[in-house]
Automatic annotation (TrEMBL):
This is NAD(P)-binding protein. It comes from Bimuria novae-zelandiae CBS 107.79. SUPFAM superfamilies: NAD(P)-binding Rossmann-fold domains (SSF51735). InterPro entries: NAD(P)-bd_dom_sf, SDR_enzymes, SDR_fam. GO terms for molecular function: oxidoreductase activity, acting on the CH-OH group of donors, NAD or NADP as acceptor. Pfam families: adh_short.
Amino acid sequence: MNQIPDVLYADRESTTWLILGASRGIGLEFVSQLLARGERIIATVREPWASHASALWGQAGSDHGRCQMYICDILSEDSIIKFVSQLMGIRNLKIDYVVISAGVLRYPNRATELSFDEFAFHLHTNTIGPIICAQKLLQTNIPIGTITFMSSDSGSHGNFREMEDGFAAYAASKSALNMAIRHMAAELKRKDDDTIILAMHPGEVATDMANIHVTWEVHGIITPQESVSKMVDVIQSKGIQHSGTFWTYENKPYVW
């Protein structure tokens, strides 16, 4: 992108949100709702030609450029570094909220059956990529208010979901993400960095990633619209005293 509209500059009144993994599902819904709220958005997709990104390209072309599009493949450190370098070139940029929504679930992924590559793919997509994205952003001079990671109740140690057959790699990747989030928050506190780090369980959201046939009954399925609407309010309600904590879309603390 050669020109950045003034609406993305930090000396304006509305807030700026960075949505990583915005081409579908929860990430795309964040973009839609934030545009409706009059916010500024920087949104990323892995590939510009991805068919599932077409809805986001439509969003980016509307509302006078308040949604700016970038490419960031969280499976590639080079892609992450290039994207962050592009952000560093935006004059006066201040990011109020970062939402790292990129993630994957390849079902089933049983510990007794999954391959090395299948396990590695879940870890790279759900754990390593999101943490490195946040790390590279934090290493810039861009002021960042809050970084929220999309986690899952499947990653909780304190509330192990034994009935989730076929979720071993997914749950392990989210559990590893949770631990890294806690360490990241603690490290920032030791550095007197006021960036807030949060983990979020979005609920049982009816997205294409969740469009699988499982052997147990899933209760409380909600739409992306309901989940994101509530998560925006939760994210905006948290202060530095909440950094390193895990929340549900209903604004309830969740056990690690």
